[in-house]
Specification:
It contains 21 helices and eleven strands. The chain is α/β, with parallel strands linked by helices. The two termini are 19 Å apart.
Length: 446
């Protein structure tokens, strides 16, 4: 270890708050949040048990002690809205596990896992026990992959309230019928100019729905407002998804920026909608570090990418708090490739010269670091490698696939680090996950 790294590790050891598993662990986060209305909680992988568990612990306190009114996740709007209906005492699902069945698209384990069942069960119970004058806490999705599910949701709403409007919507959305149920086929065909795009149709449908707002909301109460909002948001998702799939074959930066901008726009629309119901809403966001962190502090930002966290800071300034999560080693639930079943994989220890190695060398198994602390900022500002594991883990190309350079102190407001973590437990466990063997992911010769 270099002298600089040794000094940085010693600084971290001196200022970090060890996490003991007590109620007081996250007192500093609640003080940091204060009057902020957006708290973004990250994760260094989509398959780590501790990240989900600790985000739930923090979120429960934000709801109970600081009156946060919603959770918004890196998931599709219609799938999350099914959960929203359940936790608010609506819908037909008899429990948390059935309510999560909307998350059927790969990677289902991101939201269909044991930690989510526990949290959704708690959220339903909290809402049932809350005083009548206290608004129920909702659960929403920010993402834009649900092209066909969102079209179906728009049509389902219009079928219930306006048959003529439903007929117009079916005619417009019929533009996608040629491409089947795989939206990537649509994107590929339009990119190669094999077919015209459906852009005009989805824009017209969104504008048509919005123009009918006052007429469709002539009923009373929040139910009509909520149902119109979910339909309007699904129409926005169709518009965003159409553009995303049409863009994804033209360049990674443009499609990434479109997706994160959509998530930021959805968050703002959700805040506006909830403000109309509760006066001043507050939202907790659950998403990957690569979305939660400020891109301007990373090499991706230098290449032109932006993130939800960056946009939240730009749009909401001090009212947005960004918290990252990291781990040094352990196991993770991930697939070997897109669409393949989840496996329990052993995570390689953090690479030399990485933040993960530096945090490991601090010698505290579980800790919270306030990056607003001057000493912490100084120790964690110099550029280092940082790991990001998504739903796919490729240890054979670990450096290229899972690391990027960043300035951690500028990327987040605080960091939660667990030195060793466990694989998230999916509700549907494949043979690859259930087996006694943990997939050894160390390349030979290491």
């Amino acid at each position: 270890m270099s002298r600089t790294s040794l000094a940085a590790a010693e600084t971290i050891a001196a200022i970090a708050r060890p996490l003991q598993g007590t109620h007081e662990d996250y007192d500093p986060i609640l003080r940091m949040v204060g009057n902020a209305r957006i708290v973004l909680l990250g994760e260094a992988s989509h398959g780590t048990q501790e990240f989900y568990h600790e985000r739930a612990r923090i979120t429960k306190r934000l709801i109970q002690e600081l009156d946060f009114t919603a959770i918004a996740v890196e998931g599709d709007w219609p799938d999350a809205y099914r959960v929203n209906r359940y936790v608010r005492g609506k819908g037909l699902d008899a429990g948390a596990e059935p309510a999560l069945r909307g998350f059927s698209r790969f990677p289902a384990w991101m939201w269909r896992n044991t930690e989510m069942v526990e949290f959704v069960t708690w959220l339903r119970s909290r809402n049932e026990k809350a005083p009548a004058e206290e608004p129920p806490v909702g659960f929403y999705g920010l993402d834009l992959y649900s092209l066909h599910a969102s079209m179906e949701a728009v049509l389902g709403y219009l079928d219930r309230v306006d048959a003529a409007a439903a007929a117009r919507a079916r005619a417009r959305y019929g533009c996608f019928e040629l491409f089947g149920t795989d939206p990537q086929q649509y994107g590929h065909a339009t990119t190669l100019d094999f077919s015209r795009s459906c852009e005009d149709e989805v824009v017209r449908q969104l504008l048509d729905l919005q123009s009918q707002r006052d007429r469709l909301l002539r009923g009373d109460g929040f139910v009509d407002q909520d149902e119109f909002f979910q339909a309007e948001q699904n129409a926005r998702v169709v518009k965003g998804a159409e553009q995303y799939y049409r863009t994804m074959f033209r360049g990674q930066v443009s499609s990434w920026n479109l997706r994160d901008t959509h998530m930021a726009d959805t968050l703002d629309a959700l805040l506006t909608h909830l403000d109309g119901q509760v006066g001043h809403s507050k939202v907790v966001v659950w998403a990957h570090n690569s979305h939660v962190g400020d891109a301007r502090a990373t090499e991706m930002g230098a290449a032109g990418e932006l993130t939800l966290g960056q946009l939240a800071r730009e749009r909401h300034e001090d009212e947005a708090v960004l918290i990252g999560f990291s781990t040094y080693s352990g196991t993770v639930t991930a697939a070997a490739d897109w669409g393949e079943p989840p496996r329990r994989c052993r995570v390689r220890p953090g690479l030399r010269g990485s933040y993960e190695e530096l945090l490991h060398d601090a010698g505290i198994p579980r800790m919270l670091i306030d990056l607003g602390d001057e000493d912490a900022a100084e120790a964690l500002h110099p550029e280092r490698l940082q790991r990001a594991i998504g739903v796919i883990y490729r240890p054979e190309t670990e450096r290229q696939s899972h690391y990027f350079y960043s300035h951690l102190a500028d990327q987040f407001d605080a960091l939660v680090h667990w030195d060793e973590t466990r694989a998230l437990t999916p509700l549907e466990r494949s043979a690859a996950w259930e087996g006694d063997e943990v997939y050894e992911t160390f390349p030979t010769g290491i």
